[in-house]
Amino acid sequence: MSYGGFGSNSGGRGDVPLRILFIAPTGFFADYGCHVRIRGQAEALQRRGHQIRIVTYPAGRDILGLDIIRPPILSRHRQMPVGSSWRKILLDTILFPIILGVTRRFRPHVIHAFLHEGALLGLLPARWTRVPLVFDFQGSLTGEMLDHGFLSQRSPLLGVWRRLERWIDHQPDVILASSQHATKMLSIRFGVSSTRVRAVPDSVDPEEFRPPQPADRPRLDALRARWHLPVDRPIIVYLGLLAPYQGIDLLLEAARILLKERLASLPELPHFLIMGFPHVDRYSQQARTLGIAQHVTFTGKIPFEEAPAYLRLGTIAVATKLSETEGSGKLLTYMATGLPVVAFDTPVHREYLSEWGAYARPGDPVDLADAIQTLLTSPERARRLGEALRARAMQSFNWDVAARQILDAYAEVCGASRAVL
């Protein structure tokens, strides 16, 4: 079968329609991380006329317009653990026969698997049906296990998992990496040929995430009243998971430095709006211990659909992720909203923010406080950075660009595949 014409050069809805099976071994949809990437890609590909079917865990919420298949025998309402867990390994075994059945009925042209677990689950169905396996790589499997405490550096199982990870990385027909840093890591650390890897960065909808407008004022006033936020002070916003590898402990320590040691140097007293989960109680207690609880608001989980309005409350955004292997999609929501961003100086953060980020040394709360203070005392510079970041997000990191990149990758592997469709 010829696939000529469905790549990015054919343009939009004139593409040859494909049946694409997404394998998402996670509780899709949740309001963070890889879920946003999966949803964004699926919706962007559907806008181009392609048919997407998503096989995922029983947990998660349905999204209007997306065809989602879940194991029918398990509860939809149990909270999924964040990161690696033995429970997810059990769920993968339950998911596998569902994937086989959907593959047989749906007859996909492409199997697009997210996370290493997805690539492993999709391998046999892809070989069985002789269709390409596309692996959406968002970070190292063992790196995530270490970040989340599932394994330690001393664990005797670490070597086993690393060998499995390397083997999985070499099975797909093509790998879509969430950053240029990830493409280099696949080549250097895992020996994957660069010819089999394509960079498809995380993306954002700049019409959904945008700066505040006069018409937004009633909604923003209501949010300020709901959370008792000050109306005349700068708001430092964080949106994402709350965990040590996300640098939340360091963010709170930087807040303490600003609020307790540098009041005389600040034009206004900042307030910190921290939006995310889990471990809200743990970090609320840390804020109380540090004596800054009255200046920090924890909202818990924010539905993704409400995140744009919450971010419009912000003056400055912070990105304190410490992981060296994962992407950092939250940056794009900050950028599209027009917020200046203070971030730890990591390769992934540099890749998104480029010269328009305000950087701090990774793991250093004093330097983080310095970077926040610099923007608080330089509002004109902060404004220029925010405007430049929004322009960058609109040009380089929107879902339509990502869809074209994905379709180009599909065209390469489908044109060379052994598929009989």
Provide structural commentary.
This protein is α/β, with parallel strands linked by helices and 421 residues long. 43% of the residues lie in helices and 14% in strands. It is built from 15 helices and 13 strands. Helix 2 packs parallel to helix 3 (115-129) and helix 11 (330-336) crosses helix 14 (379-396). It is globular, with a radius of gyration of 22 Å. The N and C termini lie close together (7 Å).
How many H/I helices? Answer: 15
Strand tally:
13
Main pleated-sheet profile: 7 strands, parallel
Question: If you consult CATH, what is the topology of the largest domain?
Answer: Rossmann fold
Number of domains: 2
The helix-and-strand class reads: alpha/beta
The global form is: globular
The CATH first-level class of the largest domain comes to Alpha Beta
- Our estimate of the beta-strand percent is 5-15%
Strands ordered across the widest β-sheet: 3-2-1-4-5-6-7
Task: Report the mean per-residue pLDDT as an integer.
Answer: 91
Distance from first to last alpha carbon: 7 Å
Name the poorly predicted regions: 1-14, 416-421
Q: Helical residue percent?
A: 40-55%
Annotated CATH homologous superfamily of the largest domain: Glycogen Phosphorylase B
Oligomer type: single chain
Roughly how many Å is the radius of gyration?
Answer: 22 Å
CATH architectural arrangement of the largest domain: 3-Layer(aba) Sandwich
Q: What is the helix/strand order? A: EHEEHEHEHHEHEHEHEHEHEHEHEHHH
